């Protein structure tokens, strides 16, 4: 990959499911900042306390863990559409959300929207749009994998109904069939790049060639399923290879995500341009990323962006 000198942002990645090796490889490939949307965990939760601890880890341990590898971690907080279908639990989760939305590093309400497009999903989607409106936060929308086109259009129409400006809404998991509808309405169009199926990086190159770079961004979504936390750097690299200009790659793989989620007031380029030194001797609530006998990585405060690896003392 030839993206080491490019700063990259992955605006949708579930690091809770990932290892420290992934963090190391991501940083080496140029990723300086990530956004982790709140989502389900592969199986439904049964207690509100599980949501509380999960949200706490997104603004706590996971944020710390990323910092130990030179990556700035942000998150969006929300009740995902799958679990919105457990209404008794959903009611309790809704009461938690306002407690987390103002925490440091929270850049939006997400990922919310429709899965099976049930009545309960619609109810909690709308309630969370209201929360976003009250708090003036961006919205990160998960679009359904079934009936994608109609679900995507419905997501946008409902958010307009609630008076949310399109430029405050990032519509995720787009494909060739939805991108035009999303861009025409003035929303941000995000694409999740999957390794084998669905939206691959070859197809993404064609999308950028056809639709340009305005309001388009890419992510890996990397989670508990088959996914690749290096999807953004790999796609950036392929775009350059296929003749897309450096400036355009920068927009799709960095600038647009910063602009969209920066509207939260919680995410600034200076966060990673003048980073604190990586010091793996640090602890979060008495825990560090080190295990028995490991030598801490200590990065110089003047580590050049994209070259953290070479500034690391091993
Ligand atoms: Zn997700």
What does this structure look like?
- One of its GO terms (molecular function) is metal ion binding.
- Belongs to the metallo-dependent hydrolases superfamily.
- Pfam families: TatD_DNase.
- Keywords: Hydrolase, Metal-binding.
- The protein has 314 residues and is of the alpha/beta class.
- It has helices at residues 20-28, 48-59, 61-67, 81-84, 87-100, 119-135, 148-161, 179-184, 201-211, 231-241, 246-262, 270-273; strands at 8-10, 31-37, 72-77, 106-113, 139-142, 169-171, 188-192, 216-219, 298-299, 312-313.
- The chain has a single domain (8-301), classed as TIM Barrel, CATH 3.20.20.
- 40% of the residues lie in helices and 14% in strands.
- The strands form two sheets. Strands 1-2-3-4-5-6-7-8 form an eight-stranded parallel sheet, with helices on both faces. The chain has a two-stranded antiparallel ribbon with strand order 9-10.
- Strand 1, helix 1 and strand 2 (31-37) form a beta-alpha-beta unit.
- Helix 5 runs parallel beside helix 6 (119-135).
- The longest helix has 17 residues, at 119-135.
- The radius of gyration is 19 Å and the shape is globular.
- The protein binds zinc ion (ZN).
- Residues 12, 14, 37, 39, 111, 221 line the site of zinc ion.
SSE blueprint and pairings:
Elements: E1 8-10, H1 20-28, E2 31-37, H2 48-59, H3 61-67, E3 72-77, H4 81-84, H5 87-100, E4 106-113, H6 119-135, E5 139-142, H7 148-161, E6 169-171, H8 179-184, E7 188-192, H9 201-211, E8 216-219, H10 231-241, H11 246-262, H12 270-273, E9 298-299, E10 312-313
Parallel strand pairs: 1-2, 2-3, 3-4, 4-5, 5-6, 6-7, 7-8
Antiparallel strand pairs: 9-10
Helix pairs in contact: 2-3, 2-5, 5-6, 9-10, 10-11
